[in-house]
Amino acid sequence: MSVSQRLTLAVLSAAALIDILDGSIVTVAMPAIQRDLGFGAAGVTWTVNAYLIAFAGLLLLSGRIGDLVGRSRMFLAGNAVFTVASLLAGAAQNTTTLIAARFAQGIGGALTASVVLGILVTRFPGERERARALGVFSFTGAAGASIGQVLGGVLTDALNWHWIFLINVPIGVAVVVLGARVLPADRGAGLAAGADLPGAVLVTGGLVLGSYTIVDIGRYGWVSAHTLGFGAISTVLLTGFVIRQATARTPLLALRVFRSRKVSGAIVVQMLTLSAMFAFQVVVALYMQRVLGYTALQTGLAMLPAAIGIGAVSLFASAPLSARFGTRNVLFGGLVLLLAGMTWLTRVPVHGHYVTDLLPMMVAIGGGGLVLPALAALGMSGASERDAGVASGLFNTTQQLGMALGVAVLSTLAAARAENLSAAGMSEAAALTGGYRLAFLAAAVSLAAALAVTAVVLRPATPAEAVSELPVPVN
């Protein structure tokens, strides 16, 4: 790996770090934000939801625009927007300013994340060096998720919640300055190639409404008029988008991308896996705090072994194992580890002990360090050079939707189960534990489904299938 490639990887990883860190760092600081700015119990969740809705809703459109105007330009613009928005969020003195700044952060995050995989796979064309780069990139993602929880507690307790946003500013400035020097210059296909404005309106509206519907399921319920109504509108818009893409002269998302079983299968496996993994982080944190009595900082520290495991495996083991045994086999092995760990959690007791009841799962979830790089490699390998940006946006969009859906489903199941057990006369701790066990069982089922898809859809292609799945050249 050349010096230029190392610097490029450092820039891409730093940007991914602050994007992911920002999604988790806020959760620990929410009580302090609520007290300081006078948020209501439901309103404070919009410090997370505003970011998620903008991020998930704009990823696909951003990926296509990145293909047209140049991925490096889009990456730098996104980081600039994210950095300015972080400064505004850190300076916020009222709820309106903070939510608006968080929405702007989501826009910047979407512009960045939509093209980062496209830049990475084109900058690292060799299979071995690409595997190493994806391992480092996945390591920063895992580190960002867990560092955010610990850092959020430290900054909020030692200084104040404003610093959880201000810490992004120097990192963002460094990424923009260094990125402008080391990222490959690419002009893209040009706006004349077409951005499909009707398709952009349909998919952005559908994804924004869909994300909004998902994140508010816990508040309104699955069968409420709010959920069903907005869910139906989102479905209609997304269906219209698919129809539009099949007929448009210059589609936003060329449906040929889905001809590859690698792309389609990796997307499905990713949604199922991240639904379980992200929900695991949320539900385990709730179990530790509400049942075992951990503080926010203790919770973050208790989850460090999982982050270290994912990071170490992705950084040091993923690439050599993929080179020796194949990407699909590594993915399969990582999913088996995750499933074993999640199954272990289905037996957590009311009076649990960290070493015997939680630490085994923290170790097993290191399998995510095998899964995430393998999914990224498989998901991007089936896309042509011209479609790399939109494939990256698609991959990241389904990642965000998978995480949001997993949290919505598992937290709703846990809450409903706990309410039923409490009504039956159980103590609060016992009822909560019963709810969390059900959530862990649902996560295990999701991982089992991911294993099944890997076995059936991501099987090695026959010679005839390999020819039929070659990317279609576009003039």
From TrEMBL:
The chain crosses the membrane at residues 39-62, 74-93, 99-121, 133-155, 161-183, 195-214, 220-243, 263-288, 294-317, 329-346, 358-380, 401-418, 438-458. GO terms for cellular component: plasma membrane. Gene3D superfamilies: MFS general substrate transporter like domains (1.20.1250.20), Multidrug resistance protein D (1.20.1720.10). GO terms for molecular function: transmembrane transporter activity. Residues 8-462 form the Major facilitator superfamily (MFS) profile domain. It is a multi-pass membrane protein. This is DHA2 family efflux MFS transporter permease subunit. It comes from Nocardia stercoris.
